[in-house]
Design goal:
The chain is an alpha/beta fold and 221 residues long. The protein contains 9 helices and 8 strands. The protein has helices at 14-25, 32-40, 45-56, 62-73, 90-102, 117-125, 166-180, 182-190, 202-220; strands at residues 4-7, 28-31, 81-84, 109-114, 127-130, 136-138, 158-159, 193-197. A hairpin with a 5-residue loop joins strand 5 (127-130) and strand 6. The chain starts with a strand and ends with a helix. Bound molecules: BIS(adenosine)-5'-pentaphosphate (AP5). BIS(adenosine)-5'-pentaphosphate (AP5) binds next to helix 1, helix 2, helix 3, strand 6 and helix 9.
Length: 221
């Protein structure tokens, strides 16, 4: 079992690569962004508050997201967990370490996906996803083969996220640099950090991530 974190700013390609690892390796993707998007459609008071915070581009409280992850860690782990968009603060990183330790698991690699800020605006404003199967597309770099129809499941329910606009992105980036980027140093100090070039084409990023997994698995012996 291999457990990894995909770490990077909004639009770095975390979700794109996580979906591929699920398909090709049978890993389980734990995306706190996806979990929170589910919560916001619940219509509960908590869901409404989460929606406001996300649309502004701010981070949801540590307590909420740690609770979500704790619940999922008790479920199916496939051939390992991919933490996508979690942890995002030092408190979340400490909590994850404690949760993994308590359940007798370890973290094998933290993969930093490095991307220039200028590329992110283009990535975020051009993104759309399938509302049925979750496949991620892009107007320019990954359009659907047939306009308006998902290549994977054939659905016409293609959606754009409410926070995928330049104003929210600016705030999301600010949150990333203030609260999440310190995790790069944190995991470097723990000896878990690997860095890949997130600006490379999707297939090249995938190959680099596969290389890291091989290295991490070999290191574990
Ligand atoms: P979340 O859903 O986690 O969003 P994010 O981190 O901002 O990341 P994105 O989903 O925007 O980007 P991605 O890296 O997955 O990129 P993707 O693969 O889609 O979080 C949303 C919000 O929820 C947060 O702002 C916060 O409010 C809240 N939240 C979530 N987790 C939280 C936590 N732990 N604590 C507190 N709050 C939390 O790719 C983007 C686009 O680029 C796509 O169109 C794709 O096709 C394209 N693309 C991907 N790779 C490439 C490539 N190599 N070359 C060219 N194009 C590419």
């Amino acid at each position: 079992m291999t457990n990894i974190i995909l770490l990077g700013p909004p639009g770095a390609g975390k979700g794109t690569q996580a979906r591929r690892l699920v398909e090709e390796r049978g890993m389980v993707q734990l995306s706190t962004g996806d979990m929170l998007r589910e919560a916001r459609t619940s219509g509960t008071e908590m869901g409404k508050k989460v929606a406001e915070v996300m649309d502004r581009g701010d981070l949801v409280t540590d307590e909420i997201v740690i609770g979500l992850i704790e619940e999922r860690l008790a479920g199916n782990h496939g051939s390992g967990f991919i933490f996508d968009g979690f942890p995002r603060t030092l408190a979340q990183a400490d909590a994850l370490g404690a949760l993994l330790g308590r359940t007798g698991r370890q973290l094998d690699a933290v993969i930093e996906m490095r991307v220039d800020d200028e590329a992110l605006v283009d990535r975020i404003t051009g993104r759309f996803t399938c509302g049925q199967c979750g496949e991620v597309y892009h107007d320019k770099t990954k359009p659907t083969a047939k306009e308006g129809v998902c290549d994977v499941c054939g659905s016409t329910d293609l959606r754009r996220r409410a926070d995928d606009n330049e104003e929210s992105l600016r705030q999301r980036l600010m949150e990333y640099y203030k609260k999440t980027s310190p995790l790069i140093g944190y995991y470097y100090a723990l000896g878990d950090l690997f860095t890949v070039d997130g600006l490379a084409p999707i297939e090249d990023v995938a190959a680099a991530i596969d290389g890291v997994l091989k290295q991490a698995e070999a290191g574990r012996g």
